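question for whoever is on the cluster today: can someone run the full assembly for these? two chains, 926 residues total. i dont have access anymore since they changed the login thing
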Amino acid sequence: MNPAEEYLASNRSRFQDELLQFLSIPSVSSEPGNAGDVERAAQWVAERLRAAGMEHIEIMPTGGHPVVYADHLHAEGQPTVLLYGHFDTQPVDPLELWSSPPFEPVIRDGRVYARGACDDKGNMLIPILALEALLKSSGGLPVNVKVLFEGQEEIGSPQLPQFLAAERERFACDYVLSADSGQYSETEPCLGLSCRGLCAVQIDVRGARTDLHSGVYGGAVANPLHVLVGLLASLRDGEGRVTVEGFYDRVVPLTAEERDAIARVPFDEEAYQAQLGVEALAGEAGYSPVERVWARPTLELNGVWGGFQGEGVKTVLPKEAHAKLTCRLVADQDPVEVSSAVVRHVEQWAESRQPLGVRVEARALPGNALPYSVPAEHPANQAAAAVLRELYGREPYLVRGGGSVPVCELFFTHLGVHTIGFGFGLDDEQIHAPDEFFRLSSFERGQTAWVKLLQRVGDQIAN
Amino acid sequence: MNPAEEYLASNRSRFQDELLQFLSIPSVSSEPGNAGDVERAAQWVAERLRAAGMEHIEIMPTGGHPVVYADHLHAEGQPTVLLYGHFDTQPVDPLELWSSPPFEPVIRDGRVYARGACDDKGNMLIPILALEALLKSSGGLPVNVKVLFEGQEEIGSPQLPQFLAAERERFACDYVLSADSGQYSETEPCLGLSCRGLCAVQIDVRGARTDLHSGVYGGAVANPLHVLVGLLASLRDGEGRVTVEGFYDRVVPLTAEERDAIARVPFDEEAYQAQLGVEALAGEAGYSPVERVWARPTLELNGVWGGFQGEGVKTVLPKEAHAKLTCRLVADQDPVEVSSAVVRHVEQWAESRQPLGVRVEARALPGNALPYSVPAEHPANQAAAAVLRELYGREPYLVRGGGSVPVCELFFTHLGVHTIGFGFGLDDEQIHAPDEFFRLSSFERGQTAWVKLLQRVGDQIAN
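^ ran it for u. tokens below:
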């Protein structure tokens, strides 16, 4: 055990108390009434960074919830890493399903229960403690460190893009290490290599000026619902492939190695089906279910509506019908290009079919996200893999995310750097749900892991 | 002018006062709080029939709003006609759009404004006045007459089927003359020959147990919306024909004469489009717009829904998707047969496509109505045509209804007789809407017409 690890061991119980303190601040970013609590959480974080020995601590206004900055830039010749995490939380509803109040953290069976315990206060406190252990035990850090902890992640970080664009200099770094992340299981580590991008399109079909009586007009006047279902049915084929022209053009095919790495990740199809309550999985021909979610683009209808939705029968011929869809994108697809292709598909369908008596419109909706991926061989991934191998005694799975993690794309766009996830949350820890918890074993293992990671990325260049 | 017509002329102003009296009773059948008013209207009608000289007057309980019965059965050897109408009204909402209170009838510019003025109190009072004119001027009636005036038409006559089934004997007749009907315009008469039937089906597609995140699961799990739109797109072809097997099997084709009669009815396609706000009409190939509405069956989606319908974007993979549809039917289609054929189409589609990971279900909904038609050469149609020809100076158009008029089918089913519409409402009289009105000219012409009609149907047999 090196001195920093000894420091961690001898401060275990204080750190745990501090975690409970941090978790007791109801920093729900989506509730206007809790804005003061988000600010209080920022102050707590700033104070904790100061106590850890970090410098140039600043609570930075963003126009929304603040960002906490700090740095320690004395490792000449070493890389500069930016640590990321967030101190805001999800709301607590439905409150009645919590076993104990969400902002009165309690420890039961080696787990701390509270809103934000895992996502992300527990995880983001870990690197602060690692920094303290390194600073207090050796007087310095093996690398240059900056931190960006934000208070608006759970509402989609609305002010962060502008903020980052304006503060490029300050946050310049070699890469980002994100504490807003997790592991595969208590005994199996993982590294995340990619997440999918997003674009969204709305389709509107409009007919007569008003809803019509299906007896008085039915047969003579176009029904927008019939036009819409025909159009929507043209977006995918029977094999689950998207039929929008050019949709797959920029998709970088998975290499044999990547497919092998995906196949190595345990996947219990039966358990997955049972959990979802379906008798079979369905998706694009030629790919495994995991490949379909992690590495293939999709086009999914998120909502379709028009006409009567109540009980019984209403003989209405509706005046309009609507659909919303989103596409999940993989490298190197571009959200603007793909949403434009979907819009063009709709326009061409309408042009070739010429449906009478309706207007068909499609438009991109806001919410674009670029697909994001980081090479497995990125030095920080290599360092993280080595640390995880050492701590878990096995090779980390190389996983991917089906969703979008906008912050990775933000750092890539504004700072030009990759983000490596290094967190210790687990899938069963009820994030965004009642009885969110975090394992104290993860909290402690995470501190050791971060110490080792920072030491190792320092060694990478030094050697 | 015969004595009955003279009687009408000399009682004009009293009849008008009585109409206003009748219209001031707020007999809204859908409002539980107005049930006493519906009862009061029944008493008013019973009293008015007594004053007219009718016999065996009875307010008959139905389990819901009552029926008023009366008869005058002294025309030996003559047919028995049953007069039909209703004394209940639609609700008045939105009240603020009325120019004067809906149950404080006022006369402006030769029109009486009140809820129920046209539909149907004004129209149903007319034959009572004609009966009085005939009875008071000659002491008898040229035919045997029974009346059935009901108080629940505007809520779909829920108790009437059972009531009629139990009272077949009492209501036995040669045919029904319905005062719940109208003319083509102030100068153009018409006779209605048919209305369409109805059946309804709901389709449900269900996938996973809960709504899913389209990032975490999208690609691997069936999306019920995609399955539904594919299924719905299979119900009609590009030419507007229904593709459900057997759908058209029982449809009696229009004869050349019937198509001619329909073509003779004025139809201004441009004005129709302008009124609806559409740039073109759309429908089954090979038929005119009027034929499509009056004499061809349809399958119309009345509602489709699933997933997110709000503002912006929600990346949900919905657990279920639904559709409601109704078919309008023409002779000799059967609602049970057609809804079964639609359900079978859905089942066969699901069987042949085998969509993975979803359950597809279809079921008939209540609300069946048989298509109804009466031959143009029915003796009562002949008599009505002659009266209209005499009063308007031109041949009545032979029109059809695209909607369903359940009471025609009820009389046919339970009494085995046809119903001939003989009313004087016009399309612009705002029925079911604010500022409903009835032309006093129609009120008066109607009285003469009914006197002539009853005399003529008496003559038919006598000669």
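summary bc i know u wont read the tokens: The radius of gyration of chain B is 25 Å. The mean pLDDT of chain B is 96.
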